[in-house]
Amino acid sequence: MKKFLLVPVMALAFCGMSLGQNKGTVDAKMLNDIRSSFSLDASNTAIQNAITNSESIRELSLNRSKIGKTDHFFKYRVAVKGITNQKSSGRCWMFTSMNTIRPNVIKDLNLNSFDFSHNYNYFWDIFEKSNLFLENIIATANKDMDDREVVRYLKSPVDDGGVWNSFFNVAKKYGVVPAEVMPETKVSNKTREINSLLKEKLRGEGYKLRKLVADKASAKEVKAAKVEALKSVYRMLALCLGEPPVDFTWRYKDADGKISEAKKYTPQEFMALVAPEFAKDEMVMIMNDPTREYYKVYEIKNYRNVAEGINWTYLNLPNDEIKAFAMASIKNNQAMYASCDVGKQHNRKAGVMDMNTYDYASLFGVEFDMDKKARILTRQSGSSHAMTLIGVDVDENEKPVKWEFENSWGTSSGNKGYLTFTDEWFSEYMFRVVINKKYLDEKAQKALNSAPIKLPVWDYMF
């Protein structure tokens, strides 16, 4: 009998020793203290009943005192026409970039409406991202598969995401075309399947390239293998999106009913026609990142889509400075690319974003008190969506009280396609604005000319 009892006794002794060594254990005393902090009194019972029987915690926490308090009127607003719709794709950065140019095209050509072909630039964006992925795989082929940089590249060889420099790179190289020249397809409007297939194909080709390098293949052989991989990518894109035109003939009817002469353009020539300022590289990204020093320029390694293009580079500034520069741009009728954490405190039905729109603290009786810096460092908040910044409303002292976005989710979203957000929300959840350099003050201009501080491709902010 003693033999049979020996093992359980020893096991219990060992378990006790292990538990004693682990000071982070939730022991009986601690658990009892935690359990006793909650009781199903009448108030908690009512809240529990409401939450457990509700389809949405968010809807239960909607702050009644905020409803109807924010209107959609703005003292200063860019003259814009029409709302675009990116459908089920992650191309907000592309739509937003084009939406900053679109008002000038409508004005200069005296049009009732106009839009670019997002499908055309999407084709080249994914194609160029595929090339950059393969180049990154070749460059890191001698690193271990679990190296942090290699893992980052393999995690997402291509996707729809991007920022303003992504549009700048692809438009600079390939130009733009009107929407009717290369219309959207079912695939460009719903990109999940093609992205999944491209990722599988590219990971396989990347694995082969790594093996070629490991087997001491010549640079010529490696390049030839990369070109063959890109031929497959081009084929897949052409079958799903159509083949992009080398040139096209275009004419239009203006707002007075006059039909223009038909002219032949290359996409690059059309870009020069409709956006001459674009070629002058006058636009700069300014950003509010309280985790880093202000008045410094930062550059994220390999965050681009075109191998020879520019990386994501930005000047970090305090919110008040960004707001002042943005107001100057709006007053001058110039829309701006902007990006934010759109999901935070966003009342989609009202088209309003304001602090405490959803009062989770009162619903649960717990505090949610992180500031912007803490939210960034803990990955609780970051830029999730790009929209066009077009409006600002001010008080009697010309201080901003609320702002307006032109979104790319169609007219059924928000306030007929637009979103209004308070100045306080701007401070907490706005991250980036792309603006003409001429609106920056002397201090910001000087900082802009400093050498960028390099950040890794896996940086927490991106």
What can you tell me about this protein's structure?
It is built from 17 helices and 14 strands. It has 462 residues and is α+β, with helices and mostly antiparallel strands. It has a single domain, classed as Cathepsin B, Chain A, CATH 3.90.70.10. The strands form two sheets. Strands 1, 4, 5, 6, 7, 8, 9, 10, 11, 12, 13 and 14 form a twelve-stranded mixed sheet that branches. Strand 8 (346-347) and strand 9 form a beta hairpin. Helix 6 (118-139) packs across helix 8, helix 6 packs parallel to helix 10 (192-214) and helix 6 (118-139) packs antiparallel against helix 11 (219-241). The model is unreliable at 1-20 (pLDDT under 50).
What are the main properties of this structure?
462 residues; alpha+beta; Cathepsin B, Chain A; 12-stranded mixed beta sheet; two-stranded antiparallel ribbon; 17 helices; 14 strands; 43% helix; globular
Q: Determine the fraction of residues in helical runs and give it as a percent range.
A: 40-55%
Counting DSSP H or I runs of 4 or more residues, the number of helices is 17
Mean pLDDT: 94
- From the 3D structure, determine the CATH topology: Cathepsin B, Chain A
Shape: globular
CATH superfamily: Cysteine proteinases
Any idea of the CATH class? Alpha Beta
